[in-house]
Amino acid sequence: MDSLQDLGVVRCNCTELDKMTDFFFFYSLPLVLRSHFDCSGRESHGALYLREIVFIIQSQSNSFHVTQAERRRADLLEQARSFTEKPPVVLLLHGLSDNEGDWSILPLLPHLSHSFGKNSSWIVYLEEETNVKLTALVKVLAKFDKNKEWFLGKPLCDEESTIIHHYAFAENPSIFKYPDFAASWALSIPLVVRLANKVKEEPLKSDFTIDLKHEVALYIWDSGKGPHLTAVPELCTVPEDSPQASHCATTLSKEPPLCGEPVNKEDIFVAVKTCKKFHSERVPVIKKTWEKDALFLEYYSDHADPSIPTINLGVPNTERGHCGKTFAILQRFLSSAVPDTKWLLIVDDDTLISIPRLQALLSCYDSSEPVSLGERYGYGLSQGGYSYITGGGGMVFSRETVVRLLSSGCKCYSNDAPDDMVLGMCLNALGLPVTHSPLFHQARPEDYARDFLAHQVPISFHKHWNIDPIAVFNKWLKDDFTASQDELQSAKTEL
C-alpha cells in the first residue's frame, strides 16, 4: 500500500490538521480518512466520501419555493466543486415523485432505500433556508459509524404536553426529543433501510400528519425499540453571520424572506368567521389587537349585529366544521359585494395574526398563481390522501385559487363538514399545491418548543384557551412599525 506521502498527503499534527482541513487531501481521497480519533479527541469512524451523502431539500412545488430550493442545491454543488471527488447527490423533495404524501417523509423511505441503500451512507434533510458548510458537515458525519443506525439533529422538546403532539409523554414531555428541521437532520443508511422495510410491511397507522418533525421522531423511536435522536451541536439555527455560528455546520439565513415591497393592504381581503355567542368574547380581542392593520375586513356570523358589524351569510351556525360558511365566504369574495383584491385571508375569531408580517411574506408569492398558503396538515398521506391548510392559523388564498375552486364545482357535503379538509380535497383533485409556512400556527405559543419559536418571526397563533390573548398578541405578533427587512430581523432577534 502506498504511504500517505506517496499519495500527496502532508503529515501534520492535530493543531495543523484543524487549520488545513480544506487542503489535507488530494486526488480523489475522501474528506475524512479512517482513524480512531479525530483531533478533538472524539472517535472518528471511517472514510466518508461526498458521493456517499444524499441531500434532500424539503422543497415545495410553488414557484417561489422551487427557486429557493434550486438556489440551495446550487450552493451545495458549488461548494462540492472545490473538492476533486465526485459530488454528493442533491435532490428536491417535491420533484421525487407525483405522490402528494412525499413531504411527510415516511412514505418515501422505500424509494430512498431502493435508490441509495447500496452506495450511500447518509440521507441529510435540509429546509430551503438551511445554509450548509459542506466541509464542516462531512467532518461531523464522519464521527459516527455509518454502518450503524443513527438519527441525528438539533433536539427540540415540549415543556408541557400539547394537543399538536396528541399529549404524548404527558407525565414528562421533555424526555422525548425530536429534530428542528431548520437545522437539518440526518439518517444513516442502515436506519433508512430498516425503516423502509417496516413501512412496506406495516401500513403507517396515523391518519393525520400534524407536526411532521415530532411524528417522524416517534416513528423512528418505535416505542423505545428504535434509536433516539442524537444531539449534534454543530447543527444550528443561529443566523449565518452570528458570532455563535463559528462552530456550526449548518445555520439559517440571517433574515426572513422578503422578495420586494410588502403587498399593499388594498390587496388583502380578510374574512373572520364568528357566531353570536362569541360576539362579546372574541371579537373585542380582534378589535383591540390586529383589526386596525386590515384595510378590508368583514365579520361573518349567524347573526347580523350592526354594532360590530357582522354579516349574516344565511348559513346556520354549526358547532364544528363551518364548511358552509367558508364556501359562502369564497363566493362573496368573487362577487361585487366586496373590493376586488388579490388575496383572501380566512381566519377564526380566536386567531391572532400579524397583518404587516403577512404583507411581507406575500411579497414572495405571485397572486396570479393558484396559491394556498398557511400551516399544512395531511390526511391519509400514506394511502393516497391529501394536504390541507389548517384553518385556525389562517388560510390564505390567491384570487386564482378561489376562481378555480368554485369553477370546479367543489362544494361541501354538509354545512358542518371540516372546511379546511374539504378545501384540501378539492385542491388535491384539481392538482393545485398546498404551500406550507411554519410561521402560521394552529395552536398557542405554549404548544410549541421554545427553541423552535426562537428563530421565527411568527405570523399567527390560534386559541384563547388558558391564555390572555391580548398579552400573547403584544408579545409575539405586535409590530410598532411598518415592516422592513432590517426591522423584521430586529423583531426576530427580540423574540
UniProtKB/TrEMBL annotation:
Q: Name one GO cellular component term.
A: membrane
Indicate the segments forming the Fringe-like glycosyltransferase domain, all copies: 117-198, 262-468
**Family per similarity comment:** Belongs to the glycosyltransferase 31 family.
One Gene Ontology term of the molecular function aspect: glycosyltransferase activity
Q: Which domain of life is it from?
A: Eukaryota
Q: What species is this protein from?
A: Amphilophus citrinellus
According to its record, how does it sit in the membrane? Single-pass membrane protein; Single-pass type II membrane protein
The UniProt keywords, alphabetically, are: Glycosyltransferase, Membrane, Signal-anchor, Transferase, Transmembrane, Transmembrane helix
Q: What is its main location?
A: membrane
* Compartments it resides in: Endomembrane system; Membrane
One Pfam match, by short name? Fringe
Cross-referenced Gene3D superfamilies: 3.90.550.50
Protein name (Swiss-Prot/TrEMBL): Beta 3-glucosyltransferase a
